[in-house]
Amino acid sequence: MRRRVLITLLGGAAAWPLAAHAQQAALPAVGFMSGRSPEDSTHVASAFRQGLADAGFLDGQTVKIEYRWANGDYDKLPALAADLVNHKVAVLVGVGGDVSAAVAAKATRTIPVVFGMGSDPVKAGLVASFNQPGGNVTGFTLWTNEMESKRLGLLLQLVPGAPLIGVLVNPRFPPTEQELLDLEPAAKAVNQPLFVARANDDAELDAALASFVKQRVGALLVTASPFFDTRLDRIVGFAAQKRLPAIYQFREYAVAGGLISYGPNVAESYKNAGSYVGLILKGAKPSDLPVLQPSKYDFVINLKAAKALGLTVPPMLLAEAGEVID
Questions:
Q1: pLDDT for 296
Q2: pLDDT score for 22
Q3: What 8-state DSSP symbol labels residue 43?
């Protein structure tokens, strides 16, 4: 009898690793696809996981997150989305720009999709409306692609009378055309000349930055684009080296040494996206979850950068800033 009990117990013990493996394999998988890179997305990925955790899902314990990164190369996104769909993820997340959002929505009609983008998802055809998205898709918009004329106005308060302002755009990023359509009349209204340079890869970025030097621009506006986010340190470093006052879309640029940034609090939106994924894993339908919009905007001024550029920030602009970096 004792030998039989021992064999039974040993047999059960031998099965423990298999059972643990089966339990781990049974974790629901969330596909997280981004047009950005892991290096510049540490804070937003952390915020996404926090949203999931708040909903009761811990990465590696009750859910498994499969990350895929395009590193600013939008041509990679369809293959990344197809890979995640083939992995039969429970939810597909497409963030890091409008292209990633559109590719995720197009990749599947059955798997729930949570997107993140910078412009209007209704105009882009991703959802039927903000309140009733319809289908298998919902998510958030940052509206950051709609803010270029606002950023131009802030930059002009810092460098009034700049003879020429350089504008860095990404020609392969779908919202770029609308960004320019918003910028050009705003500049014309105040008789501000602009010089537009286009870059979609590293070679083009080198050429664009060199053209700003050649044209002797007096300030720089870096438009919203995930590709530029993946090259944040390089662009901020260029502006500092050439002593160019510059404005950017996200707080992270100012923290990295950029002069000024204005845009939505992107971490908040990613956290909300994580919460939405948690709700879907619990049974909610994307069609019942309204598209989210920002409730917080970051206006950040880096006084250390201003001092290095020999700029005096107007008191009214300082008072308007939500954060001042000394």
A1: 87
A2: 41
A3: H
The encoded tokens of residue 145 equal: 């692609």
Per residue in 263-287, pLDDT (tens digit) is 999 999 999 999 999 999 999 999 9
How many whole angstroms from its chain centre is CA 147? 15
**One domain, residues 117 and 173:** no
> Helix H segments across the chain?
2-25, 42-54, 77-86, 98-107, 148-158, 176-189, 202-215, 226-230, 232-241, 251-255, 266-281, 303-309, 315-320
The verdict on 86 and 217 lying in the same domain is no
- Our count of domains for the chain comes to 2
Tell me the residue range of the domain where 162 lies.
Answer: 145-264+298-325
Closest CA to 269 of 33, 12, 48: 48
pLDDT digits (tens, 9 = 90+) for 212-227: 999 999 999 999 999 9
End-to-end CA distance of the chain: 77
Asked if residues 62 and 82 have their Cβ atoms less than 8 Å apart, the reply is: no
Same domain, 130 and 172: no
Say which CATH number the domain at 258 has.
Answer: 3.40.50.2300
- The answer to whether residues 51 and 90 belong to one domain is yes
Given a cut of 80, whether residue 246 has pLDDT beyond it is yes
Tokens matching residue 169: 């755009």
Please tell me whether residues 154 and 247 are part of one structural domain: yes
* pLDDT for residue 238 is more than 50: yes
Shared domain for 305 and 286, answered yes or no, is: no
pTM of this structure? 0.87
φ and ψ at residue 194, rounded to 5 degrees: -120, 145
- Helices 42-54 + 266-281 axis angle, to 10: 40
What is d(CA 168, CA 221) in angstroms, rounded to the nearest whole number?
A: 6
Same domain, 81 and 159: no
Neighbours of 55 (CB within 10 A): 17
Regarding whether 315 and 205 lie in a shared domain, the answer is yes
Q: Does residue 66 contact residue 290 with C-beta atoms inside 8 Å? A: no
